[in-house]
Write a structure and sequence with these properties.
Elements: E1 6-10, H1 16-23, H2 37-46, E2 52-56, E3 60-69, E4 74-81, H3 90-104, E5 110-112, H4 119-127
Parallel strand pairs: 4-5
Antiparallel strand pairs: 1-2, 2-3, 3-4
The structure holds coenzyme A.
């Protein structure tokens, strides 16, 4: 298959609807109530130039990633590529863009949360050279 011409651009608050349409119902992506335009804009403002989308023909979003840092570690979220455009290096490019932006902001270590049953994503991260940590438990709290 001939590779398609893709442009990678930093996500803008106006891209929420297009990005959310990609993420919505996508296996491997878990959307929460805080996936809304306000928190999307806030995240982009806190993490300038760290979040990207892959655009086809300027108006069709076929991939996206959100990334940010807390001053110490970088975290990647919501990496997704439209099923019709996978295995063409778009996911890899999105990760490279985010990681390089985070590195430029002084961050040298990065983490991504992956559902245990998401075998394809696990293979993707492994093949990008990311280490699967078996020594860490994730403890979460969303209550008051
Ligand atoms: C994971 C995902 C983003 C990968 O996007 P992609 O654009 O297809 O990835 P790339 O083409 O850059 O793949 C890079 C390498 O990862 C590996 N890889 C990617 N998808 C794979 C799969 N389904 N099975 C096995 N290996 C895979 C391959 O080694 C690939 O290189 P190759 O094609 O030269 O062999 C995409 O499958 C996706 O959107 N999945 C659903 C959402 C999701 O699970 N997101 C991850 C959340 S952590």
């Amino acid at each position: 298959m001939k590779p398609v011409a893709i442009e990678i651009r930093a996500l803008h608050p106006d891209d929420f609807a297009a990005a959310n349409a990609l993420w919505d119902f996508m296996k491997g992506i878990v959307l929460r109530e805080d996936d809304n335009p306000e928190s999307f804009s806030r995240f982009l403002a806190r993490n300038p130039d760290c979040c990207y989308a892959a655009w086809l023909s300027n108006d069709l979003l076929v991939g996206a990633i959100m990334a940010g840092h807390d001053g110490r570690r970088g975290y990647l979220y919501h990496l997704a590529v439209d099923p019709g455009y996978r295995r063409q290096g778009i996911g890899r490019k999105l990760v490279e863009k985010s990681v390089s932006a985070l590195r430029a902001q002084g961050i040298s270590k990065f983490h991504v949360f992956v559902k245990r049953r998401n075998i394809a994503a696990a293979t993707f991260w492994k093949n990008l050279g990311w280490e699967l940590r078996k020594d860490i438990q994730l403890h979460s709290c969303s209550g008051s």
